[in-house]
Amino acid sequence: MNDLMDAVDRLAAETKFAGVVRVDHGDTVSFVRAYGLAHRGCGVANTADHQFGIASGTKGLTALSVVSLIQEGRLEPETTARSVLEEDLPLIGDDVTVEHLLAHRAGIGDYFDEEAHHEITDYVLPGPVHELATTGQYVRVLDGHAAKFAPGERFSYCNSGYVVLALMVERVTGASFGEVVQKRVCAPAGMRDTAFLRSDELPGGAAIGYLAAQGLRTNVFHLPVRGSGDGGIYSTAADIHALWAAFFGGRIVSKEWVAEMVRPRSDVPSESSRYGLGFWLHESQDAVMLEGYDAGVSFRTVHDPTGGLTHSVLSNTSDGAWPITRRLDELLGI
Q: Exposed end of the chain (fewer CB within 10 Å): N or C?
């Protein structure tokens, strides 16, 4: 383990990494270390307990919220989006189901289309970011995007699909999406420091997202002021470990549904991965992953349920996590 620590320290110094790295073997924390600054203007250092945006890592929590409602019979995998959305978002086909959306096989148009290959620091949202503070406010930016293909035809990563799932959750439960995630995922997992924070009023324990390894330019104008089903929740390295333990321990959804969520629905050669329901899957091993990449945010966590090994990298820069997480994959044999 000392060799791993030394390798991570060297790479963090070389890349000017800012964030937190944690490695767990079962219930034992083998390595946790913070690097860089949470607030550059004030010289505040990152700590192991800081909250970081995890971008699309949120999708795993969204999927778990939806599946918990399926377990209760309040939704079904075959429930159509149209049956819940009613007249909203008319370009979403009548045959698009919850399972299609969870598996990124719905074929709907995307408001934040990653297949367009924008630079991660481009300003790509179609309106003022401060007007995207609740899930309901996303309806106007979700609207007007034509379908790409028929539901079920193929995999296509889709941010809109996960906001649609959040809308459906709100309408089925009558609660805000953030409240549902807290009740159905964070509380049973013991994730005390995970929440949808507003980027323009971050508390002192949250790391500000920066566009580059150096400089003071933040991501506050690049992303919705508060996230929803597709991304934007803040979490800590400890809470991410707690999520994996609770997920595979059957404390959020049943173990039968855990197996269903990590059953491959698609091969994704472009990512050297497969995809289940809300979770990325290793292309040949049992490892399960969550990833997030946005302006000022990079995040990846990998859990091997067979060996009980987890490594997580949370960074408050756009590209900071990738060299570290790739090196951990090599060193830990994932």
A: N
Residue-wise pLDDT tens digits, 3-16: 888 999 999 999 99
DSSP code for 51? B
Cα–Cα distance for residue pair 52/55, rounded to 1 Å: 9
Tokens of 105: 């096989």
pTM for the predicted model, two decimal places: 0.97
Tell how strand 52-53 and strand 19-25 pair up: unpaired
DSSP notation for 53-88? E-GGGHHHHHHHHHHHHHHTTSS-TT-BHHHHHTTS
268-307 confidence digits (pLDDT tens): 999 999 999 999 999 999 999 999 999 999 999 999 999 9
C-alpha distances out from residue 254 to 28, 64, 67, 287, Å: 24, 10, 9, 19
Q: Return phi, psi of residue 68, to 5°.
A: -65, -35
- Tell me the residue range of the domain where 169 lies: 2-332
Residue 10 CB-density burial (10 A; 0-12 exposed, 13-18 middle, 19+ buried) = exposed
Q: Give the CATH number of the domain where residue 215 resides.
A: 3.40.710.10
Strand bridging mode 37-39 / 44-45: antiparallel
Banded model confidence at residue 123, pLDDT cuts 50, 70, 90: confident
